[in-house]
């Protein structure tokens, strides 16, 4: 299974489920206080740190733990989340008698940490350094082949025990990461509606039995959309200037917490099916996940025949925050061959089953062409 987690998707289930991170903390400078927030989980901490932050934070952690009753060791993450990479970290963890795994970095280092914590049956703390995806709060990891192709979704028994977000770090990161997270979060509401309307199962313990979303999950997905519309543009401007204001704090929360709870508890649909499939092209791999999914949202609105007013609202928002709305933005040549490759790849996604009708390869090609046409038309009027 490439983009889904179950071959037994169900309709009209009587069961509903909610999954959630244990605790969520957000604010400027929180990472400097990491030891005080993690000491309650144990005293032997194993840090998996993104290569970009490894040297700086290994040194800082040595200072933070100098007078602590807890001890730490750190390992650098670089590359893709592959089976072989997981084995490397697992060997380090097994020989270290750890009780807490702590990730500092982006989605890939976080996904590895989730697997190690699950294998060791120990506590997991996640510290995202960018707000580019909604991965930090979920109970799943995305695995890739050695060639860098997404090929597996691994489900875990529980969500992270703590997600700690240092908003100052995110405000100081390149704005493209925040914008990509906005694209990923934008899909949460629209994909959620698809799943609600068809009573399609969510991602909470779906290997046990099919559960649909709770009312709480749906409410979070809607609040995520409302927050993006209210604060997205101001947050982008603030992040460009590394200014931490309430609007940016709100968007950090929407990108990480609301979107994370939303997608896991309500489900994915067309936007992710097409967004993920774009990576079948080498050009698509250069785009960030949320940038591709943002274009997938426009495709989803075409597939589900949203009214033009709503489509214009989303296009206007995407253009203003800098999300792709056409193939030119994605740096992809919309040839018949390329579009059919994307469409064929997207049909591997179980999330198409969240739709109220069945789509074939040619249908998806036409949907993408219409989305591209609307995006180009909107840009020509700006």
Automatic annotation (TrEMBL):
Pfam families: Fe-ADH
Origin: domain of life: Bacteria
InterPro entries: ADH_Fe/GldA, ADH_Fe_CS, Glycerol_DH
Signal peptide from the UniProt entry: none
Cofactor details (free text): Binds 1 zinc ion per subunit.
Gene3D superfamilies referenced in this protein's UniProt entry, alphabetically: 3.40.50.1970, Dehydroquinate synthase-like - alpha domain (1.20.1090.10)
Binding-site positions, glycerol: 134, 184, 272, 289
Any one GO MF annotation of this record: metal ion binding
The enzyme's E.C. designation: 1.1.1.6
Enzyme class: oxidoreductase
Reactions this protein catalyses: glycerol + NAD(+) = dihydroxyacetone + NADH + H(+)
Pathway annotation: Polyol metabolism; glycerol fermentation; glycerone phosphate from glycerol (oxidative route): step 1/2
Residues at which NAD(+) binds: 50, 107-111, 129-132, 138, 144
Similarity comment text for this entry: Belongs to the iron-containing alcohol dehydrogenase family.
The protein's name in its UniProt record: Glycerol dehydrogenase
């Amino acid at each position: 299974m490439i983009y889904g987690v179950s071959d037994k998707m169900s309709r009209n289930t009587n069961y509903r489920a909610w999954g959630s991170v244990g605790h969520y903390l957000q604010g400027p400078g929180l990472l400097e206080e990491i030891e005080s927030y993690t000491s309650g989980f144990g005293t032997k901490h194993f840090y998996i740190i993104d290569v970009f932050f490894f040297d700086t934070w290994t040194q800082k952690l040595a200072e933070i733990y100098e007078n602590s009753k807890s001890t730490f060791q750190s390992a650098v993450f670089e590359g893709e989340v592959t089976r072989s990479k997981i084995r490397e970290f697992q060997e380090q963890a097994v020989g270290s008698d750890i009780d807490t795994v702590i990730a500092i970095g982006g989605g890939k280092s976080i996904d590895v940490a989730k697997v190690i914590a699950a294998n060791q049956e120990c506590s997991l703390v996640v510290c995202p350094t960018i707000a580019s995806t909604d991965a930090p709060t979920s109970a799943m990891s995305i695995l890739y082949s050695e060639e860098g192709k997404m090929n597996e979704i691994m489900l875990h028994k529980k969500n992270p025990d703590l997600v700690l977000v240092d908003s100052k770090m995110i405000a100081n990161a390149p704005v493209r990461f925040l914008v990509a997270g906005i694209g990923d979060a934008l899909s949460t509401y629209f994909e959620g509606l698809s799943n609600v309307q068809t009573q399609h199962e969510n991602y909470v313990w779906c290997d046990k039995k099919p559960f649909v979303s709770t009312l709480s999950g749906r409410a979070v997905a809607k609040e995520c959309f409302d927050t993006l519309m209210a604060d997205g543009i101001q947050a982008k401007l603030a992040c460009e200037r590394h200014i931490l204001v309430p609007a940016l704090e709100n968007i950090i929360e929407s990108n990480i917490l609301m979107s994370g709870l939303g997608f896991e508890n309500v489900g994915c649909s067309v936007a992710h099916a097409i967004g993920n499939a774009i990576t079948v092209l080498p050009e698509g791999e250069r785009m960030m996940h949320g940038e591709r999914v943002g274009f997938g949202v426009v495709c989803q609105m075409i597939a589900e025949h949203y009214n033009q007013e709503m489509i214009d609202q989303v296009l206007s928002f995407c253009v203003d925050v800098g999300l792709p709305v056409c193939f030119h933005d994605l740096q992809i040549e919309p040839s018949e061959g390329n579009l059919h490759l994307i469409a064929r790849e997207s049909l591997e996604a179980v999330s198409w089953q969240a739709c109220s009708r069945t789509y074939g390869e040619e249908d998806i090609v036409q949907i993408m062409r219409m989305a591209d046409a609307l995006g180009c038309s909107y840009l020509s009027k700006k």
